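Before the break, one more example. Copy the sequence into your notebook; we will annotate it together after we see the structure.
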Amino acid sequence: MFTEDQIAIKDAIDKICENYGDDYWLETDRTGTFPEDFVKEFVDGGWLGIAMPEEYGGSNLGTTEASIMMQAVAESGAGFSGASAIHLNIFGLNPVVVFGTEEQKQRMLPPLIQGKERACFGVTEPNAGLDTTNLQTKAEKSGNGYVVHGRKMWTSTGQTANKILLLARTSPRDENGKRAEGLSLFYTDFDRDYIEVREIEKMGRKAVDSNAVFIDGLPIPQDDLIGEEGKGFYYLLHGLNPERVLVAVEAIGLGRAALRKAVQYAGDREVFGRQIGQNQAIQHPMAVNWMELEAAHLMVFKAASLYDRGQPCGAEANAAKFLAAEAAFSACQQAVRTHGGMGYAKEYHVERYLREIMIPVIAPVSQEMVKSFIGEQVLGQEKSY
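Here is what the structure looks like once it is written out:
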């Protein structure tokens, strides 16, 4: 299925991840310590620029290669603690690559690829949820730039970021013929003189912080506007398909890690004088997990291949995210059940996998919204919400 060069990418990532075993990720989960040393290895190896243009320090490879890398990270047992630490660097600035000026690309991309800057994502808002067109954060013209006021939610790495990719409204929603117009995209300094960051205590992935962000008078220069004013939502959409693909492969990686733990325990654990894996009640659910994960894997890489060839892939990317989240959640849940009571103990790691797998189940788009997308855009049914 993969070329020799693509297999070599997986082998190289596996080698890095060998240095960061289960105990490392257990400790980051306990303490909430960001995996700086882990990320540094990816910076030093040039991996953060795997899908970025070569002229800015990247490797100019595709979504397929980036997906191979991110799946290997999650599958190593790093899960979303490891994957989320580098996720935004991989495709987060896709709007800059596609719609930015040459000056912006030269200024914005190399520092991110080199690990000199860390970016966060400012899109989700507490009162908008999945209705992105209803964002209320405002960017008002002021001199040679803008001043921003508003709130963002679930902003990852906000505790350490020095840049933000920010979506804000530059004209009122009701003044536009289309709901999605009037939103503008900026990539600018995360200036804490104007931004308050409050960490959200959450279910899993403690190593990578999530935050509520309060913006009060943040000045943004004109040069930090990406593309045309009012077109930011459309620029953001351009990067959603590869984002869904990456989230999906990370889910599959974590699902495979969970299945690996379950299989090992089922072979080692003996009850009533026999391995518990001999029992169909243990063995058959794991077999189903394997089939579901492999099927989702095929859909993921179909979507990645279509994207890399410049072909429409919205249905495939959304389906991949849906199938991967369902398959991986089932595998993580089964891993805990296979371990029995010990599945509830942190030292066996599968309870962490179960907590982390909730991320792709609910984000970046809900399973219900994926069903609606397929129903409307693929099956031609009327809008259901």
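The first strand starts at residue 119 and ends at 122. Residues 236-378 form a domain with the Butyryl-CoA Dehydrogenase, subunit A; domain 3 fold (CATH 1.20.140.10). Try to locate both features in your own notes.
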